């Protein structure tokens, strides 16, 4: 049996925190699918096709290092439905603090009620990346701050361009 994991998120933008969860989470599964959530009607900071390209450029080395197949998909329905559709045994999520814990555990339990076959697996954030949040990266970047230590280099380029284009 191939154990597929599903890591859904906005990835807007992709941060070193996401990379931490992808790298450590990949080791738990035979295959990991990254799900980029598309919310119709909400304008993202980074367009969805760029987020998909960015994740695709990041996963190559992680896949090579872990030996785990990793691929990227978009989804516009419930994460639990997307996970079921791709045949995932578990949804992977990261926990940074008690706010994440309260929200993620509640969501995990509601998902379990809707689809008991899909588990939720939580990884606690690594100390080096625990403080990173996409929302704060966006705010800092928009105000001209240095976000280079929070982002993979590929993501930094895209964020820098997005700030230029949107100002
Ligand atoms: P969403 O809108 O689904 O919360 P995000 O891209 O903000 O999308 O987050 C996706 C997942 O990654 C969530 O489980 C979140 O807790 C986790 N995550 C985000 N940043 C970090 C980080 N710095 N360390 C660990 N996990 C993180």
Describe this entry's structure for a reader.
The chain is an alpha/beta fold and 167 residues long. 46% of the residues lie in helices and 19% in strands. It contains six helices and five strands, in the order βαβαβαβαβαα. The chain has helices spanning 16-26, 48-66, 79-85, 98-114, 134-142, 153-166, and strands at residues 4-9, 31-37, 69-75, 90-95, 119-124. It has a five-stranded parallel β-sheet, with helices on both faces. β4 (90-95), α4 and β5 (119-124) form a beta-alpha-beta unit. Adenosine-5'-diphosphate is lined by residues 8-11, 15, 17-18, 20-21, 93-94, 96, 100, 125, 129-130, 132-134. The site of adenosine-5'-diphosphate has 19 residues, from β1, α1 and β4.
Fold topology:
Layout: E1 4-9, H1 16-26, E2 31-37, H2 48-66, E3 69-75, H3 79-85, E4 90-95, H4 98-114, E5 119-124, H5 134-142, H6 153-166
Parallel strand pairs: 1-2, 1-4, 2-3, 4-5
Bound molecules: adenosine-5'-diphosphate.
What share of the residues does DSSP label as strand, in percent? 15-25%
Strand neighbour order, sheet with most strands: 3-2-1-4-5
Radius of gyration, in Å, reads 16 Å
Poorly predicted runs = none
Put the structure in a nutshell.
With 167 residues, the chain is of the alpha/beta class. 46% of the residues lie in helices and 19% in strands. The protein has helices spanning 16-26, 48-66, 79-85, 98-114, 134-142, 153-166, and strands spanning 4-9, 31-37, 69-75, 90-95, 119-124.
């Amino acid at each position: 049996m191939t154990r597929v994991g599903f890591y859904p998120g906005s990835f807007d933008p992709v941060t070193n925190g996401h990379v931490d969860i992808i790298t450590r989470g990949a080791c738990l599964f035979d295959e990991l699918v990254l799900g980029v959530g598309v919310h119709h009607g909400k304008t993202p900071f980074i367009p969805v096709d760029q987020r998909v390209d960015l994740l695709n450029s990041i996963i190559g080395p992680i896949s090579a290092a872990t030996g785990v197949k990793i691929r990227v998909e978009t989804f516009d329905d419930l994460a639990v439905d997307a996970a079921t559709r791709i045949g995932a045994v578990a949804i992977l999520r990261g926990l940074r603090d008690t706010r994440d814990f309260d929200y993620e555990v509640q969501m995990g339990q509601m998902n379990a009620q809707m689809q008991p076959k899909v588990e939720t697996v939580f990884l606690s954030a690594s100390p080096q990346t625990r403080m990173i949040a996409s929302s704060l990266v966006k705010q800092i970047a928009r105000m001209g701050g240095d976000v280079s230590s929070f982002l993979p280099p590929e993501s930094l380029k895209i964020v820098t361009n997005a700030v230029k284009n949107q100002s």
